[in-house]
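pls design
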């Protein structure tokens, strides 16, 4: 059986170098707990001593009761012309109390001579003594050979000597880094093979994604002999990001037959990916491989029909193996089978009603020609289906609404909305103020019907998108509004289209409320 591949997560350190991403110490603790459940072997907590958040994290991490993962501290080799035991950076690593430390050293002679401004011999001394000192303190030591692949291309002799120095000093793993992210898979393979012949120590890979090859480079490195992979959740990181562990882990487990996490842990992959996205305040990428909302979405009619009969012919893995789901997306490209399957997902049986299927398909194509899009609006699609089947019962009916915008003396801009609706044959009028017409209409509607439908209190608008469909018409262009709503348990999308943005918004808002009230949260 092939050797197990250890997974080293650096989301909490390298991942936070992504532009716009910031994690508090509490955020880091929460992510670390989730990574432990996923089965990650090592969780790099940060650069101790570099900032107060990392210091706080390592202090709090001492109290973490992790089932599997080990918290790792990251730092550099000792400074030039300074003994390892006297180096404050190495001491900061020891002060964290972590049993595992990872230090980086220069493997590209250009950085040694032009950045560190020292000799190649002194660089080897820094690597050797730093690793040896940390090992003397009974630490597991990983050595990141920074800029290794660029260094190997420029001066292979010194790049290999750096790795040999770390290995001879007792490093538990030599991690080869494509720090600039510019190397291609065939270059990675050749270099890893060369190091395997020159160094008697386990090898690892740390890839960046500047040439869109970080995942591929990590996988070919494993195939060439690496048994340790470093990366981040969702590929977060500086510039174009790091190698995405969310793609690497299932590729290792399901495609390469390499042991890294259990089957049960693998099924948590989608959940962990989205959890880290939410903690990082970054919208999940719907097209992210393996875990994206659209990763197993079938849109074409013939394709969707065949996928339902023989999913393995159209899906590279079972979506459930990574905690994801296959979906049918209904659009103007949909066929009868697509619509029937989509209706089945919604609890609507159309298998014995081909006439309704044809009518609805024609309606969808006509509506999408006018600007509607049901791919991200399952809520509106279900309501349309139920209307066609005669099973739709509105929770209220509209008599009229109006919105008035007011710019006040203090500079604030407020919108006042008044709605007149009927509930159970009785007429109700409600007025509310909001920071925009949709917000004001939403508040007024809640005032009018909230007393009748308590479940409305669970429904929140989580996203609002507007798209102008024909910009050449200027202010007279048709506008499409997509609303994303949630009740804290599930989410759904609705759509509205009109030349009047407020009318389009109202249409999407009504569908949102109708759908939410039709599917109350089950506590």
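designed seq:
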């Amino acid at each position: 059986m092939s050797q197990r591949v250890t997974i080293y997560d650096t989301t909490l350190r390298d991942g936070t170098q992504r532009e716009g991403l910031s994690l508090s110490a509490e955020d880091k603790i929460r992510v670390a707990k989730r990574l432990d459940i996923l089965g990650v072997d090592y969780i790099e907590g940060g650069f101790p001593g570099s900032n107060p958040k990392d210091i706080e994290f390592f202090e709090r991490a001492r109290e973490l009761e992790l089932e599997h993962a080990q918290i790792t501290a990251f730092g550099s080799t000792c400074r030039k012309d300074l003994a390892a035991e006297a180096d404050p950076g190495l001491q900061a690593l020891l002060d964290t109390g972590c049993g595992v430390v990872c230090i980086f050293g220069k493997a590209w002679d250009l950085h040694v001579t032009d950045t560190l401004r020292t000799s190649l011999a002194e660089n080897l001394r820094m690597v050797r003594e730093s690793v040896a000192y940390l090992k003397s303190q009974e630490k597991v030591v990983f050595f990141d050979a920074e800029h290794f692949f660029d260094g190997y291309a420029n001066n292979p002799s010194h790049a290999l000597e750096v790795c040999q120095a770390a290995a001879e000093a007792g490093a538990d793993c030599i991690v080869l880094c494509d720090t600039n992210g510019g190397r291609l898979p065939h270059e990675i393979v050749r270099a890893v093979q060369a190091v395997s012949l020159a160094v008697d120590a386990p090898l690892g890979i740390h890839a960046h994604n500047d040439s869109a090859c970080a995942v591929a480079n990590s996988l070919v490195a494993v195939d060439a002999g690496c048994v340790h992979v470093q990366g981040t959740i969702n590929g977060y990181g500086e510039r174009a990001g790091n190698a995405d562990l969310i793609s690497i882990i299932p590729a290792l487990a399901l495609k390469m037959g390499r042991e890294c996490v259990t089957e049960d842990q693998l099924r948590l992959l989608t959940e962990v990916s989205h959890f880290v996205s939410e903690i990082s305040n970054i919208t999940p990428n719907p097209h992210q491989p393996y875990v994206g909302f659209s990763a197993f979405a079938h849109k074409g009619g013939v394709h969707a029909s065949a996928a339902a009969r023989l999913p393995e012919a159209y899906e590279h893995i079972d979506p459930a193996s990574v905690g994801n789901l296959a979906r049918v997306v209904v659009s103007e490209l949909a066929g009868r089978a697509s619509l029937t399957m989509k209706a089945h997902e919604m609890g609507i049986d159309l298998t014995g009603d081909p006439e309704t299927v044809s009518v609805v398909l024609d309606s969808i194509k006509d509506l999408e020609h006018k600007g509607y899009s049901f791919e991200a609006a399952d809520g509106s699609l279900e309501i349309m289906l139920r209307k066609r089947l005669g099973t739709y019962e509105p929770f209220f009916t509209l008599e009229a609404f109006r919105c008035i915008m007011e710019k006040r003396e203090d500079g604030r801009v407020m919108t006042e909305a008044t709605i007149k609706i009927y509930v159970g044959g009785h007429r109700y009028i409600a007025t509310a103020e909001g920071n925009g017409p949709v917000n004001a209409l939403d508040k007024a509607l809640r005032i009018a019907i909230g007393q009748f439908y308590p479940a409305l209190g669970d429904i929140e608008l989580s996203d609002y998108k507007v798209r102008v469909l024909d910009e050449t018409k200027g202010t007279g262009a048709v506008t499409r509004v997509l609303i994303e709503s949630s009740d804290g348990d599930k989410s759904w999308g609705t759509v509205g289209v009109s030349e009047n943005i407020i009318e389009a918004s109202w249409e999407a808002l009504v569908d949102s409320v109708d759908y939410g009230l039709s599917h109350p949260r089950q506590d």
